[in-house]
Write a structure and sequence with these properties.
heterodimer; B: Pyruvate-ferredoxin Oxidoreductase, domain 3; Rossmann fold; 4 domains; six-stranded mixed sheet; 25 strands; binds iron/sulfur cluster; binds magnesium ion
Chain lengths: 358, 624
């Protein structure tokens, strides 16, 4: 028996809105619930982008599921008129894994915060990524615990002063993209709440990817960590700081360019001083993660001086859920199709039976 | 000429040796032969948590006890009539359980100075009169085995390893069992290793023939087949029966079974069995931890599968928050907890019933779940089906409380016909079930079935029924987020009432009181069933009238529980904990239930409970 050919798209088995039927619009994806985020919260922009993006995806609404953990960001599913599950703190990837494995005909999205995914849920995040379950994980990174009123989070920059760190936080933060790459993720990207166009592009790329996708979304929390990403929103500063990742193109920002250093790291230097052979050309599908990882380290100092945005890595690897279904399907086929009463009777009896009376 | 045969009604045999001596396998094989022979039986494997503790030490002793009889058997037996001790450690750690007059078969080859010293014997117990009151057969089992395999081209070590088969052959001869079923087993097991296959069969036969020729044994024993109801039988352990129950339930419900789990003793075998049953559409996911295991199961249930998670005590603790979520989501979920000794890591390979209160109350908030407990290894099959029935019919988590004794113990099973199993057909909701604010048909995820109070199960992929559920309190009917005080009160009551109504569909508590005038009731739950019934049988022989009853539903209790408890002057509840169920019964019914408890990691002995019954009966005043 040959290996089944690997489906190429993340939504390969998800029914689409039939041709000729009225296309769905933003309103079809807007639930009747009042949105309860603080005014000015970055989550609004992400929600708006999502409500615009979902109709473009062309899938049947009932086959889309949003699963979240706990946090401000995790309220997201309530505001979309799809199927949704608002679960418990940190565990959303586990529910999504069970659902995505049981049902190949669903497009399963996870919405999580930096605390939800990287503190309490760190274990589930890395395992979902390494297994490559066909789920899309949107990590809303506001570098703070929003819902519990502003304690520092595992992505807060060292020294962050909050209610629980009056003298400044002491922890070394995670860079979510680095964590994901270290966890064998097959798709890793970064985007930002305020950049609707880029956010939508990244969502499309994630949806198309067959496998686990981690999308870090920089998200402003105006109440507890206002302006954390302001330098990336100011047009002039952004031009100098953001390195737009485009497959096959040089990684650059303004007159600066990324170069490979002797120690294996990637550094950003004025183009004039860059040795042409060392300039980094981005390649999303390079099997080896070291280049993507080196790019992810550019933000690790917390200064946002150089911030790569876009898809860091997208490689193809069998998904866990496809493989699990494949084993079950092969066993069912090998047994002659769906198990019958007689098959079950044979299982129950086993091989060593004896009869009494009769 | 064959030696004379002596008839026995029953015998309890214990094989004991080092963890590496293959005692579990030997016990298993003797069990299969006995089952095949038609005896009723019950087994008690007892092994250390360490895989291979240092050789020859007390920590490394592994044993397997089985009770075979020509009548129906309720327990693995209080004390062995025969002990096979493969080394001094096995003798030392089991001697205390032996009644005077018992038979002891030892491998003298292992009673060397080094092994004796390891367990603190200054002089060999074979020589100093320690075993005076026993029938001792001191045989050089290892060297005879090696001799018997002289012609086989194997290392001495491999030859020595076959001594368990020699011992099995000898015991088979002693109890007049044919060895053909074990031969077939060896052929299958060593199909790819022809030299080991030949050696094991030769050792088995040599053991059998040794009995016939040696003068050490004057006669053999026969335990006749037990009368049993008509049917096709097999021998089965609790964990296998439980696994099959889950598969059968999913089959009868027309649902895909999805198991999310993390390995833990003594529950792992359920994962092992189910992972081999993909042919039945079973999906097993070995998760990163227990929380992920239950999360996977809940996610699968949300998608319309039968979500199951399996664990033991420490794992149940980790799953608590997610089970609470399932209570709030009102989705089907079966949580199997194979209890072991606690707290913390406790006694991983020993049995206990101390997770009852954890099952009932070990979550935040008012978080009622149904709890079901099997009473015997074979009952694990039916109890698993019952747990799935409740979970799917009432859209609720159900905790199935097995334990280490049931999990590893085995007994003959009258294999049920598939058509006789309960029909668990599930219907998903596919149409709106209400009217929205706009006057149009709408789907209300928390509208309820008037009878069961179950909410609709509408799965993703169903057009028009898109909805969001979560762990935040939901408004009655619509399921929207609600912090309204009255609503929370109502939802809390509804969740409790839904579980309480399960009592409408469970049998009443049955009483066994053949004399009809008992004034003492002994009541149990879970795996104490066998010892309690055995105790009642024993006590009645001496004229002590006692009634017995057994709870298989721990939440809710059967409707007539109060009435039953109040009918007796004394109510005694033996439990392998410090009185958890007794406390529940006292609290629920204001009856002075007296607790009798033990937490030794082993099941109660029938004789021990019979004494409790006798004392209770004798302590009653005359009827006035
Ligand atoms: C088991 C558990 N522990 C703690 C909490 C409290 N809690 C809720 S949300 C949260 C942190 C949320 O931070 P993040 O994931 O970054 O989400 P945000 O609110 O910033 O979007 C915490 C600690 C909880 N709900 N459950
Ligand atoms: S606390 Fe911050 S993250 Fe939460 S809703 Fe308000 S602004 Fe948004
Ligand atoms: Mg946050």
């Amino acid at each position: 028996m040959g290996m089944p050919t690997m489906p190429s798209s993340g939504v390969a088995f998800v029914p689409r809105v039939t041709e000729g039927a009225t296309a769905l619009g933003r309103k079809d994806f807007t639930s009747d619930q009042d949105v309860r985020w603080c005014p000015g919260c970055g989550d609004y922009a992400i929600l708006a982008a999502m409500q615009g993006f979902l109709p473009e995806l062309g899938l049947r609404r009932e086959n889309i599921v949003f699963i979240s953990g706990i946090g401000c960001s995790s309220r997201f599913p309530y505001y979309l008129d799809t199927y949704g599950l608002h679960s418990i703190h940190g565990r959303a990837p586990t529910f999504a894994t069970g659902l995505a494995t049981a049902r190949e005909d669903l497009s399963v999205w996870v919405v999580t915060g930096d605390g939800d995914s990287l503190s309490i849920g760190g274990n589930h995040l890395i395992h979902a990524l390494r297994r490559n379950v066909n789920i899309k994980i949107l990590l809303f990174n506001n570098e703070i615990y929003g819902l519990t009123k502003g304690q520092y989070s595992p992505t807060s920059r060292t020294g962050t002063v909050t209610k629980s760190s009056p003298l400044g936080s002491l922890d070394t933060p995670f860079t979510p993209v680095s964590v994901a790459l270290g966890a064998e993720a097959t798709f890793v990207a970064r985007t930002m709440d305020s950049d609707r166009k880029h956010l939508t592009e990244v969502l499309h790329a994630a949806a198309r990817h067959r496998g686990a996708a981690l999308v870090e979304i920089y998200q402003n929390c105006p109440i507890f960590n206002d302006g954390a990403f302001d330098v990336l929103k100011d047009r002039e500063q952004a031009a100098a700081r953001i390195l737009w990742l485009k497959d096959g193109q040089e990684v650059s920002a303004g007159d600066q360019v990324a170069v490979r250093a002797d120690d294996g790291s990637i550094q950003v230097v004025p183009r004039a001083t860059a040795s042409p052979t060392r300039i980094v050309t981005h390649s999303v599908d390079t099997e080896h993660p070291s280049s993507a990882f080196a790019l992810s380290r550019l933000t690790s100092d917390g200064t946002l001086a150089h911030v790569p945005m876009g898809v860091f890595r997208q490689i193809s690897r069998p998904t866990y859920d496809d493989s699990v279904r494949g084993q079950v399907a092969a066993a069912v086929d090998g047994g002659g199709g769906t198990a019958t009463d007689a098959d079950l009777a044979a299982l129950l009896a086993g091989r060593d039976t004896w009869t009494v009376g009769g | 000429m064959s030696k004379p045969v002596q008839q026995l009604e029953r015998v309890v045999i214990r094989f004991a040796g080092d963890s590496g001596d293959g005692m579990q396998l030997t016990g298993d094989r003797f069990t299969s032969d006995a089952a095949f022979h038609g005896n009723d039986l019950s087994t008690l494997p007892d092994f250390p948590a360490e895989i291979r503790a240092p050789q020859g030490t007390i920590h490394g002793v592994s044993s397997f006890q089985l009770h075979i009889a020509d009548h129906d058997v309720l327990t693995p037996g209080d004390a062995p009539d025969v002990l096979v001790a493969m080394n001094p450690a096995a003798l030392k750690s089991n001697l205390g359980d032996l009644p005077r007059g018992a038979t002891v078969i030892v491998d003298t080859d292992e009673f060397n100075r080094r092994n004796l010293a390891k367990v603190g014997y200054a002089v060999s117990p074979l020589d100093d009169g320690t075993l005076e009151s026993y029938h001792v057969h001191a045989l050089p089992l290892t060297s005879i085995t090696v001799q018997a395999l002289a012609e086989h081209d194997l290392s001495r070590k491999d030859k020595e390893r076959a001594k368990n088969m020699f011992a099995l052959g000898l015991l088979s001869w002693l109890y007049t069992r044919p060895i053909s079923t074990t031969e077939r087993f060896i052929v299958a097991k060593f199909a790819r290793k022809p030299d080991l296959l030949a050696a094991n069969i030769a050792a088995l036969r040599a053991g059998f023939n040794y009995g016939e020729t040696t003068e050490d044994f004057a006669h053999t024993y026969a335990v006749l087949a037990a009368p049993m109801p008509t049917g096709t039988y097999r021998n089965i352990t609790g964990n296998v029966a439980l696994s099959y129950g889950l598969v059968a339930a999913a089959h009868r419900a027309g649902l895909r079974l999805v198991l999310g789990t993390y390995p833990i003793t003594p529950a792992s075998d359920i994962l092992h069995v189910l992972s081999g049953l993909k042919r039945f559409g079973v999906t097993t996911l070995q998760a990163e931890d227990e929380i992920a295991g239950v999360g996977i199961a809940i996610g699968a249930s949300f998608g319309g599968a039968l979500g199951v998670t399996t664990t033991s005590g420490p794992g149940l603790a980790l799953k608590a928050e997610a089970i609470g979520l399932a209570v709030s989501l009102e989705l089907p979920l079966v949580v199997v907890n194979v209890q072991r000794g606690g707290p913390s890591t406790g006694l991983p390979t020993k049995t206990e019933q101390a997770d009852l209160l954890q099952a009932l109350f070990g979550r935040n908030g008012e978080s009622p779940v149904a709890v079901v407990a099997p009473q015997s290894p074979t009952d694990c099959f039916d109890a698993a089906i019952e747990a799935c029935r409740i979970a799917t019919a009432y859209r609720t988590p159900v905790i199935l409380l097995s334990d280490g004794y049931l999990a590893n113990g085995s007994e003959p099973w009258n294999v049920p016909g598939v058509a006789d199993l309960p029909d668990l057909t599930v219907t998903f909701t596919t149409e709106p079930n209400g009217i929205g604010d706009d006057g149009k048909p709408a789907f209300h995820p928390y509208a309820r079935d008037p009878q069961t109070l179950a909410r609709p199960w509408a799965i993703p992929g169903t057009p028009g029924l898109e909805h969001r559920i979560g762990g935040i309190e939901k408004a009655d009917i619509t399921g929207n987020i609600s912090y309204d005080p009255d609503n929370h009160e109502r939802m809390t009551a509804l969740r409790a009432e839904k579980i309480a109504r399960i009592a409408d569909t469970i049998p009443e508590l049955a009483i066994d009181d053949p004399d009809g005038d008992a004034r003492v009731l002994m009541i149990g739950w879970g795996s104490t069933y066998g010892p309690i019934r055995q105790a009642a049988r024993t006590a009645r022989l001496t004229g002590h009238h006692v009634a017995v009853a057994h709870l298989r539903h721990l939440n809710p209790f059967p409707r007539n529980t109060a009435e039953v408890l109040r009918r007796y002057e004394r109510v005694i509840m033996p439990e392998m904990n410090l009185g958890q169920c007794a406390m529940l019964l006292r609290a629920a019914y204001l009856v002075d239930v007296q607790s009798y408890t033990a937490v030794r990691g082993l099941p109660f002995k029938g004789s021990e409970l019979a004494d409790i019954i006798r004392t209770a009966v004798e302590g009653l005043g005359a009827v006035t």
